[in-house]
Design brief:
globular; 51% strand; 1 helix; four-stranded antiparallel beta sheet; mainly beta; 129 residues; single chain; five-stranded antiparallel beta sheet; Jelly Rolls
Length: 129
């Protein structure tokens, strides 16, 4: 069996918690040194008919000033129109920007239990992170 563990780095993007509002201040993840990246979002319970959507922002500045939403062309797969309870989602990033941020937007309802990581991959090809 091939070794995956030593060829990836998982970076916490959104701390697992019950979120009652839009989470737009999540960690900005630096992709330097990675040859690929995948966003993994895990959800738990949704309360009060909560409707939350996910997106990925990307940019060249460490604070994402001047950043923008990643487009369908920047992604491998797509985020769902609405996050569902007790699901796991994986969406690849193939855009050319150095920094990314996961954003969970509350559209309605009370809350969602959710967290996200950015898995940086192909580290052997891009050098150690």
């Amino acid at each position: 069996m091939s070794d995956l563990k030593n060829n990836i780095s998982a970076v916490l993007a959104v701390s697992p918690a019950v979120h009652t509002a839009t989470k737009a201040d999540a960690t900005v993840v630096d992709l330097q040194g990675a040859g690929s990246a995948t966003v993994v979002i895990n959800t738990g319970a949704i309360a009060g008919d909560g409707l939350f959507v996910a997106k990925l922002m990307h940019g060249d500045a460490a604070d994402l000033s001047g950043g923008s939403d990643a487009t369908a062309d920047d992604l491998l797969g797509a985020f769902p129109a609405a996050l569902e309870a007790d699901k796991s989602y994986a969406v690849g990033y193939r855009g050319g920007k150095r920094y990314v941020r996961v954003v969970l937007t509350k559209t309605s309802g009370t809350s969602i239990a959710a967290g996200a990581v950015v898995v940086k991959g192909h580290l052997a090809l891009a050098g150690a992170v």
